[in-house]
Amino acid sequence: MRTSRIVPFLFLAPALAILVLGLLVPLYNAVLLSFYDWNFGQPWSAARFLGRANFERLFSDPTVWNSLRTTFVFGFWVVALEMLLGVGLALLLEKAVRGATFFRTIFVMPLMIAPVVVGLVWRYLLDARNGIVNYYLTQIGQAVPFLENLGFKSHAWLGDPSLALVSIIVSDVWQWTPFVFMIVLAGLQGLPGDVMEAAYIDGANWWRMTWHVKLPMLRNILLIALLMRVIDVFRALEVIYVMTGGGPGSATRVLSLTLFQTAFTSRDLGYASTIALLLSVILVVFSLALLLISNPLKDRSDF
Amino acid sequence: MATAQNRAAYARHRRRLPWGDISRYASLVVLALIALAPVFVMFATSLKELVEIQSRVPRWLFMPTLTNYETIITQYRFIPYLISSAVIGLGSTAITLLTAGMAAFALARMRFPGRGLIAQTTLIIRMIPPAVLAVTVIGFWIAWGIGDLVPGISFTLPSGLGRGLFLDGSQLGLMLFYTALNLPFSIWLLFGFIRQIPVELEEAAIVDGANLFQVLFRVIFPLMGAGFAVSAIFTFRIAWNEFILALMLTNRFTKTLPVFAAEFIRDDGVQWGQMMAVGTLIVIPPMLLTFFAAKQIIQGVAAGAVKG
Q: Can you give the pLDDT at residue A302?
């Protein structure tokens, strides 16, 4: 459509204004504040220019690097389990059955629930004293003594450092496996039928079809699901904040929680902005990778 | 014919492998139970008396009571927070749809310098987490006095604007951030929908003397129901569920429900019954959306991954 130069920007202006105010200004603030010493609640006139001191502190700060390591451990297990379970279930349940819509509706539900509610509910389920999980584990352990030695007894789920990490992993896997499942299912159902047919006629069994035909054809979709989960792992904060608050000690303190606590517990907005910058850089790198694999605007036009 | 036989064999194979229908249904039922159990426990707990909640043995059969719901409504500010949540959720959804629709129209139908740059930048910054936004703006908000203040009595530009709309500066701020967080996804989702509409319709309207705004609002928007539905569900979900920005930016008058729910964790223990009541009420709107629009949600999830 041929229009004057200004017209497109008339239509874009409201969205751009909101994006600039809501995303770019905060990013600009992060860059600006990372050079300052400024505490929460102080007027801006009290801010002190520090130069690169915040960055030097960032690179030698064990809190930040430990929380980055915790993020990696948490992220590794979460993404590995969700991908394995999600892809496995999609392969097993690929064939349409009667009532598929009903089941799909149920599987979507965890995705729609507020993360903070997910955290609160799992905190309740895993409560050491009154928690349902502990109750049934104990019951099973008492009924079958052999199992008791295998861990079927009461645990301080959120009070023990390694179990706390397991707990937040479990809640994340519960909420996000359906996401991987549905993306992969959509991909499987979009595979060309004649290719599957040809593979079968060539004598491929179920395993060969899966390994040598279906999964390779889904490579991009699998990569996209993986990257989206990785990005979300770095963004995750709410569930961990309400389940463990990063504890016990710093066992579940992921990078975004360190960011949050530096700003609101230590009230150090300058340094918190430096951490925010680190987190943003990590996320922009992953977003770029995602964009390279699947640009929603590509092959539509000449973007 | 060999092909016909092969085809029939393949069809039989599709029906037979890898599992029987019974085991398929059994696993579906187990998975459904796993997906629903935590939500069900939350709902059941919200209907229990304190004594019942504190007993060590969880009982599945008990006399339900609405005490917890009564408490959160009469002794706490549940209703104002519900209104705050609804205003912020619906407001940011409406603004997102309108502005994303206009932007998508410009990107899909017009050529202009900077078009590619705008589209790509939008997609790259869409993953910025709420925590980063909260940390980098809160200092200025407090410094400018847009923080914990009585609504209606106040301050600089954003809140002055807000007062006219009976909104607080913090609510306007949250709407701004939720809209910004949702715009990139909505813009390119709607972009895809506009691309599917034949240009001839718009050309015809222009020949009939319509201007571009009329084309957008009278011709294109009415055809985009499905796109708006997907985009609205995802925007509302984020705005209704978000916790961190709301925790930092709202004051005691403008809290949203997720912030309210988390407040039942106190130093002297957790008020599980009341918390689960708030949690249940938070979950209801997204659950209803799921029931009525599961297809659109799956479409949106898939669109986020598979090119839509």
A: 46
The Cα A19–Cα B121 span in angstroms is 10
Question: How many Cα atoms are found within 13 Å in the side-chain-facing hemisphere of B282?
Answer: 37
Residues 59-98 of A with CB under 8 A from B: 89, 92-93, 95, 97
Range of lowest pLDDT (B89-98, B246-255, B281-290): B246-255
Determine contact: A135 vs chain B, CB below 8 A.
yes
The token duo for A58 is 């960032």
Min Cα distance B265 → chain A (Å) is: 9
Phi, psi for residue B65 in degrees, rounded to 5: -140, 150
Report the chain B residue with the minimal C-alpha distance to residue A242: B262
Hey, are the CB atoms on B180 and A280 less than 8 Å from each other?
A: no
**B69 to chain A, closest Cα gap in Å:** 16
Q: Does B285 touch chain A (CB under 8 A)?
A: no
Which of B58, B107, B136 faces A276 most closely, judged by CB atoms?
B136
pLDDT at residue B124, as a whole number:
84
Cα–Cα distance list, B291 to B41, B57, B240, B277 (Å): 20, 33, 17, 21
- Asked if A126 and A133 count as a contact pair (C-beta separation under 8 A), the reply is yes
pLDDT of B235 above 70: yes
Question: Distance between CA atoms of B39 and B276, rounded to whole angstroms?
Answer: 10
pTM, entire model: 0.88
User: Is B98 exposed, middle or buried, given 0-12, 13-18 or 19+ CB atoms closer than 10 A?
Assistant: middle
What residues are paired with B265 via a beta bridge? B270
ipTM of the complex: 0.89
B292 touching chain A per CB within 8 A: no
Cross-chain Cβ contact A224/B109 below 8 Å = no
Instruction: Write out chain A residues lying below 8 Å of B300, CB-based.
Output: none
Least confident of A4-13, A15-24, B88-97: A4-13
| Interval B147-200: pLDDT, tens | 444 333 333 334 444 444 456 677 888 899 999 999 998 998 899 889 888 999
